[in-house]
Amino acid sequence: xxNLTAMASWSxxxxxxxxxxxxxxxxxxxxxxxxxxxxxxxxxxxHGIQRDLIKLQAELIGIPLVQKEVTADMKEYEKEFKEAVxxxxxxxxxxxxxxxxxxxxxxxxxVCKDIGIMPIEPLWNVPAIDVAExxxxxxxxxxxxSCQADKFEKDFVGRIIDKELINELxxxxxxxxxxxxxxxxxxxxGPIFKRRIKILExxxxxxxxxWKYWFLDIKGYR
Length: 222
Description:
α3 crosses α4 (102-115). The protein is an alpha/beta fold and 222 residues long. β2, α2 (51-61) and β3 (65-70) form a beta-alpha-beta unit. It has 6 helices and 9 strands, in the order βαβαβαβαβαβαβββ.
C-alpha cells in the first residue's frame, strides 16, 4: 500500500509538512501539494500566509503545487475540495496532518470515501508533544504566523518553534501543536528544503472575525 500515488494537503505549517515528510519516508509517491486560498482574503486559509510564500515553499522542496481558491462556507468548501482532488486521475490517496481531533479525521475519512481515495494520517494519535519535538529534532524550522489574541500577546507571532517554546506551551496547558487552532505556523527550512526562507520584514496585525487573531504580515522575504 505504501507505493500509492498521493497528494498532500498543504497549509504551509509544521503539521502538514511533517505529515508529508513521514509519508514520503514510508514510500508513498506524493505527486503534488494541495493548498487552499481564501477567495475573500487572497491568503492561505487559517494561516493567513500570502499565496506566493506557499509557492516558494513548494519550489524549495521541489514538488508541484496546486493552489485553489475556496469559500468560507463549509458545504461549499467540501464541494470545492472534492473538485480539486478529482481533477487529478492519478491520485489514489491523500496525506493529512491531523493529530487528535476526531471531527477532523471523521470529515477526512468521509470525504475521501466519497471521492474514492485513501486517507493517509501519519501523525494520527501520536502525542502532540512528540509531534512537536520530532519536527524540531528532524531539523525543520517554522515560525508562528497567527495566534488567538485571547491566549497570546502580539509578540508571540514571529517566534521560532523550538524546545523552549514547546515547554512554555506545555506549562500553559496549550497544545504544543496548536491542534485546536490556538496558533498556526509557517515552515521556513528543513531537511527537504533546498535553502532557508528568510523573512526580511514583517509586523503583527490584529484581525477580528469569529476569533480575534494576531497575524504576522510578512512584507519582505527571499
